[in-house]
């Protein structure tokens, strides 16, 4: 859960960038700013959740794995969300993901969903 103290930054690299997913999850479209997360790579997993798969249109979703290899880098967007919207993102993400705080290539600190 968020700390409730104000706007939250969330680094997205997959389905949370899709307009339909954002509208369903946040009730609005969120543009965000481009950024990258070094030391991680993308893999694909079966989400195992029919509602999430229907909403995104994908049975398999990307998931981050930490590698600590500086050559590995995942590109995405940073969304600025309210604490309530961040809680909604927690509800959207299935149990295969956990939210953690990271420092992005830009130096910005943000939340991101990674493999459990």
Q: Quickly count the domains.
A: 1
Q: What CATH architecture label applies? A: Roll
Question: What is the assigned CATH homologous superfamily?
Answer: Gamma-glutamyl cyclotransferase-like
Mean pLDDT: 89
In terms of structural class, how would the helical and strand content be classed? alpha+beta
Total of helices? 3
| Global outline | globular
Radius of gyration: 13 Å
Low-confidence stretches: none
SSE sequence, one letter per element: EHEEHEEHEE
Tell me the distance between the termini.
16 Å
Largest sheet: 5 strands, mixed
User: What would the CATH topology be?
Assistant: Hypothetical upf0131 protein ytfp
Query: At the first level of CATH, what is the class?
Result: Alpha Beta
What is the spatial order of strands in the main beta sheet? Answer: 2-5-1-7-6
Beta-strand percentage range: 35-45%
Percent helix, as a range, is 10-25%
Report the strand count: 7
């Amino acid at each position: 859960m968020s700390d409730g103290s104000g706007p939250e930054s969330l680094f997205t690299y997959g389905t949370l960038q899709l307009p339909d997913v954002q509208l369903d999850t946040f009730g609005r479209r969120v543009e965000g700013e481009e950024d990258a997360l070094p030391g991680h790579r993308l893999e694909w997993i079966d989400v195992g959740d029919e509602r999430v798969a229907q909403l995104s249109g994908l049975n398999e979703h990307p998931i981050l794995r930490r590698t600590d290899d500086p050559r590995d880098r995942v590109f995405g967007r940073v969304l600025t969300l309210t604490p309530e919207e961040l809680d909604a993102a927690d509800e959207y993400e299935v149990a295969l993901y956990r939210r953690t705080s990271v420092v992005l290539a830009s130096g910005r600190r943000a939340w991101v969903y990674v493999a459990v």
